[in-house]
Amino acid sequence: MNDGTPTVLKRIVARKHEEVAERQRRLSFEDCRSEAREQPATRGFAAALQRRIDAGDPAVIAEIKRASPSAGVLRDPYDPAAIARDYEAHGAACLSVLTDRDFFQGGEADLLAAREACTLPVLRKDFMVDEYQIHESRIAGADCILLIAACLSVNQMQALAGTARELGMDVLVEVHNEAELDQALQVDSPLLGINNRDLHTFEVSLDTTRTLHQRVPDGRLTITESGIHTRKDVDAMRERGIHAFLVGESFMRAGSPGYRLGELFFSI
Ligand SMILES: O=C(O)c1ccccc1NCC(=O)[C@H](O)[C@H](O)COP(=O)(O)O
Fold first, then answer.
1. 65 an active-site residue?
2. Distance CA 209, CA 223 (A)
3. Which of 99, 126, 144, 228 is 20 to 30 A from 111, comparing alpha carbons?
């Protein structure tokens, strides 16, 4: 029941608008845009996922996050570079690094450290609400950005995706229900994330992917996100033709996140 208190997602989005204004006072939009255009080539996030799937393997986006609003602190001490190396050694296709500070205790330095420690493409996992953040993501080393349909209109997603593409980054559009899926399908990007977690209530159900995936047209790559904890969860998705996964908490709680990835996806 909604008692009028803003959900965490709404508070995150409100904070993001403040953050963009603060950051633009330190580095102007024009300077941020120029710096973004000078960055070296990206690593090809969507292509890395597709290569794994074409080879008949699961394509795992392995997440690096210190904490989350729903779970609190997941990992302490927290060493993004060591985790990135561990993930790469155990078969991850790509990384996802939380860069939000106020709600996930992350930062762009975590992304840079993780990316420099391995050869994998990296998703900047944050809450995009403004074009400024797209340029900033490129400077931070992102190979892919996330657009969450629950936070954005179709026009906003199309504009932000266009800027990301111009800068050479891939775009993961994330949905949680049918209305959001209809909106996401109006955005030109092959990567379609179905988040099993309702970002307003934190409720998690893998049925979200099972239901929505049936409506995903050919040409889009479904990535199931959140709540993947067991081999049974993985097999149930693969039986339905879903071969790309974004997993965080299960790995972050393990002594060796990479070893846990291997156990869950490659039966080591
Ligand atoms: O996870 C949260 O608490 C959360 C709260 C508000 C907005 C986003 C949130 N999480 C983002 C994600 O959905 C996950 O980081 C990602 O899909 C991995 O999920 P998991 O494997 O369950 O850690």
1. yes
2. 9
3. 228
Whole-model pTM: value is 0.98
Rg (CA), the chain: 17
Q: CB–CB of 217/187 below 8 Å?
A: no
Burial 222-247, CB ≥16 within 10 A → b, else e: bbbbbbbeeeebbebbeeeebbbbbb
| Å from CA of 200 to ligand 1 middle | 11
Segment 2-46, tens digit of pLDDT: 678 999 999 999 999 999 999 999 999 999 999 999 999 999 999
| Tokens at 208, concatenated | 């979200």
Which helix (H) or strand (E) is 223 found in, with range?
Answer: strand 221-225
The CB of 131 under 6 Å from ligand 1? The reply is no
How large is the ipTM?
A: 0.98
148 lines ligand 1 (CB under 6 A): no
Give me the helix-helix angle, 108-116 and 80-89, nearest 10°: 40
DSSP string for residues in 170-201: EEEEEESSHHHHHHHTTS--SEEEEESB-TTT
Angle at 108 between CA 196 and CA 47, to 5 degrees: 60
DSSP state of 209: H
